[in-house]
């Protein structure tokens, strides 16, 4: 006789089959079914055990994710196939520079390091979609892109997206003397060659509400960019000298990436007023080479590298997943709030940036 199946409901009685000793060889065995009722405590400990098991599983996954950083030299970035031959032996790597540039040693640097270690990368396309940012961050990216190009000995082409202004244009100069190497989409905005130190004077508002700045400093110039007092003419001259020095470097970088301006510096002076340009105007003035999309820049990189297009694989890189994306909640990186950027409001610094306000929101490509 087959044993009855146990109910699926954990609270239901459980059937326990017990065989009774046969009285004789001829008599069939007698099966006694005894119903055992589970107690409330039994059900509680059963569910608690499963909950503990699930919690331990999540803890192990979290620990594995943390420990993987010790073995992942790419710091969590992921390579993604874009176009071309999926199993091609030669790669064109697209390095993305997007959003406001607040620092250089971030996702862009990780992409650069990843490309440097990949022997299959034969050409590089830098996709710029940025209004610029800090002077130091922009210069850091420019420096490492130039070094990558020189160390690997591969061509580097720039593709401008919606905007590549100020520090974004500064980064694009990593192309060096490469001919026909800067492409801008038809609706791109570029230019804005200049430097700005944002400053706001709230002294009138403070006077209205009878608020005084009673700060103690080693020297009056320590507060030359304070928002609580008007800027003196002496302080303004000091800051103007600093701005002029930084601006001179910007123009030197532009001349390094646009050889025509080395021969005619006056032409650059006419354009380097902070003015922005549409793609057609930028091409007319020699700030870019061609009007085209990312695909056109990739084709140019393949051409410069002398590659067989049928064997080329185009790849780009994705940033490490955030805590929200791991939990199934996808947050747009283009508008991810950065609490550290709040400090920009109270930290005077120079920007290669197409705006008069410090950034509170930045993109992470």
Write the layout of secondary structure elements.
Blueprint: E1 14-20, E2 30-36, H1 40-68, E3 78-84, E4 90-98, H2 107-117, E5 121-130, E6 132-134, H3 135-152, E7 156-165, H4 167-172, E8 182-184, E9 189-191, H5 203-208, H6 233-257, H7 259-263, H8 265-271, E10 276-278, H9 279-284, E11 290-291, H10 294-305, E12 312-318, H11 323-326, E13 351-353
Parallel strand pairs: 4-5, 4-12, 5-7, 7-8, 7-9, 8-11
Antiparallel strand pairs: 1-2, 3-12, 6-13, 9-10
Helix pairs in contact: 2-3
Account of the protein in words:
The protein has 365 residues and is of the alpha/beta class. It has two domains: 1-38, no CATH class; 78-320 and 332-353, 2-enoyl-CoA Hydratase, Chain A, domain 1 (Alpha-Beta Complex), CATH 3.90.226. Helices cover 35% and strands 20% of the residues. It has helices at 40-68, 107-117, 135-152, 167-172, 203-208, 233-257, 259-263, 265-271, 279-284, 294-305, 323-326, and strands spanning 14-20, 30-36, 78-84, 90-98, 121-130, 132-134, 156-165, 182-184, 189-191, 276-278, 290-291, 312-318, 351-353. Strands 3, 4, 5, 7, 8, 9, 10, 11 and 12 form a nine-stranded mixed beta sheet that branches. Strands 1-2 form a two-stranded antiparallel ribbon. A two-stranded antiparallel ribbon has the order 6-13. Strand 7, helix 4 (167-172) and strand 8 form a beta-alpha-beta unit. Helix 2 (107-117) runs parallel beside helix 3 (135-152). It starts with 13 loop residues before the first strand and ends in a 12-residue tail after the last strand. Mean pLDDT is 80; it is low at 1-21, 64-73, 324-337 and 358-365.
């Amino acid at each position: 006789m087959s044993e009855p199946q146990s109910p699926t409901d954990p609270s239901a009685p459980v059937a326990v089959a017990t065989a009774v000793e046969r009285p004789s060889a001829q008599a069939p065995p007698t099966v006694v079914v005894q119903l055992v009722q589970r107690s409330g405590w039994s059900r509680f400990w059963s569910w608690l055990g499963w909950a503990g098991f699930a919690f331990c599983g999540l803890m192990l996954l979290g620990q594995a994710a943390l420990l993987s950083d010790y073995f992942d030299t790419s710091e969590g970035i992921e390579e993604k196939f874009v176009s071309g031959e999926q199993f091609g032996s030669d790669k064109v790597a697209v390095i993305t520079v997007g959003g406001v540039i607040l620092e250089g040693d971030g996702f862009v640097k990780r992409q650069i390091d990843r490309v440097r270690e990949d022997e299959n990368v034969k050409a590089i396309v830098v996709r710029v979609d940025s209004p610029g940012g800090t002077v130091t961050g922009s210069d850091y990216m420019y420096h490492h892109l130039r070094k990558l190009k020189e160390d690997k000995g591969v061509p580097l082409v720039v593709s401008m997206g919606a905007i590549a202004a100020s520090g974004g244009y500064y980064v694009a100069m990593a192309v060096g003397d490469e001919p026909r190497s800067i492409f801008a989409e038809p609706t791109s905005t570029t230019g804005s060659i200049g430097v700005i130190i944002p400053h706001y004077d709230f002294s009138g508002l403070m006077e209205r509400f009878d608020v005084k700045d009673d700060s103690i400093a080693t020297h009056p110039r320590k507060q030359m960019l304070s928002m609580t007092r008007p800027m003196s003419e002496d302080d303004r001259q000091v800051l103007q000298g600093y701005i002029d020095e930084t601006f001179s470097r910007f123009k030197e970088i532009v001349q390094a990436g646009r050889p025509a301006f080395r021969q005619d510096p006056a032409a650059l002076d006419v354009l380097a007023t902070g003015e922005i340009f549409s793609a057609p105007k930028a091409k007319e003035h020699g700030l870019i080479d061609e009007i085209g999309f990312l695909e056109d820049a990739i084709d140019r990189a393949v051409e410069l590298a002398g590659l067989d297009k049928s064997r080329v694989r185009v790849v780009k890189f994705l940033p490490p997943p955030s805590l929200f994306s791991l939990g199934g909640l996808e947050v747009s990186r283009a508008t991810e709030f950065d609490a550290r950027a709040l400090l920009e409001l109270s930290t005077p610094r120079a920007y290669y940036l197409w705006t008069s306000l410090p950034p509170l929101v930045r993109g992470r490509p």
